[in-house]
Amino acid sequence: MEWFDALVQGILLGGMYAQYALGMALMFGVMRIVNISHGDLVILLSLIGISIATAWGLGPLPVLIVLVPLAVLMGWVLQKAVLNRVVGSDPLPSLIATFGLSIALQNLMLQIWSANSRSLPGHGIESQSIEIGGIYIGLLPLIVLAVATGLTWGLDLTLKRTRFGRALRAASADVEAAAMTGINPRAVYAMATAAAVGILGFAAVFQALRSTVAPADGPAQLIYAFEAVIIGGMGTVWGAFAGSMVLGISQAIGFRIDPGFGVLAGHIVFLVVLATRPQGLFGKALS
Amino acid sequence: MTAVLSTHGLLARYGDFQALYGVDIELHQGEAVALIGANGAGKSTLLRSIMGLLPVGREMVLLHGEPVGGTATDRMVQKGVAIVPEGRRLFTGMSVEDNLRVAIDQAARMGAKGGWTLPRLHQLFPILKEKARTQVQSLSGGQQQMVAIGRALLCQPRVLLCDEISLGLAPKVIREIYAALPEIRATGTAMIVVEQDVGLARTASDRLYCMLEGRVTLTGKSAEITREQIGKAYFGAGHGVV
What we know:
A: mainly alpha; B: alpha/beta; four-stranded antiparallel beta sheet; 9 helices
């Protein structure tokens, strides 16, 4: 029972990781842009959300409604102003540019919000739970998982079925050939990063509701997102979702073994996958 | 009659290496022009320069008399110029149909009008319908070439640039692909065909340009140019006939 509970809690935790990982799956998995500031953007959005909630006395849902469009705009500006200048077949320029951006964002956040941990008041939603067969399931983690599933489904369909999705996949496969087919790769990338950071808007609200955030927390979120995408396999959205579940379950089981072992258990599973199946659980091996 | 597409003193370079030294070519409405020459003569570079894939001067490329040199590639497609690139350059990891849909999507976005539709393309190359759901990387070379041609046609071009569409294909497949060109021309699309096979180039074109080391060394009606003339232009003066 104890282990089944760990499994359930792990899946719920995976829901949170999936929200970080989806944006990463789009940027790193599809566009091959290494965005080191991924986690810092989550934290920045969380802190903005907390400030909005405090200033205007808003509940979590209105904050989400304000924050997601803001995140979309941030993503679009990020791609237009920074990433479109460094995007190319070589991932190193984007890595260096976003590494610098990460440091700048962390310091900016320290300057504005100080190093204190904050959280978003959830008006009781964070402490409610439902009991199913002796296992308590938190309402908030359940919502997080449901939203993560919905976002994954929506993103997967967008990539497969829409004009934007096909254009993005084409540009990722061969930028020059995409341009030869009439695609403006920079415009498509700007939309894709806008979508990726928009999803981080959801992650930011839920992260600030279920836990606390501080300006230095970004890099840890970045690692979880990277790990989930690589465990699942590059370029597959449902793979990133599954990778998040694997990471969440590994950590939850690790925590049951020893409270200090949880995060490490996740890293170990990641390393084992990387060593034995580098293309990821759902990725296709390069032929 | 103004040319549909023309280049004027076109210069192009890759870093320090100058690849084109003042190339002048013209393409008229509904015409097929062949571009022949040895490897490294600058044929592909010429097409890439027209497509905005290399930086060139604004006045060096005219489209319907409008200076378009150095225009972004996607804008050139919007203006009605499409290319079947060397090496086919299909979108790997995507199905045949999705590869073609990318072009349909963009033509719709740009409001490009033309007669090319998926059913019409399937008439031209029936295998593309059969293989619609197949990933492009598992097609044969000839089938991949058909996808590349189809993708370019669905951009609804008025000018089609074909870069070595016979390269690496079996003679039977080459005949099949070249048999489709007259139907493409019948829609009024003007074509520049880069071709290594001189015989094939002559039969598939109205006029031809022979290039050598970044310059045009011979031009004329494909049916009238002699093998001797082509031999001299192809290899430079002092060489024998082909």
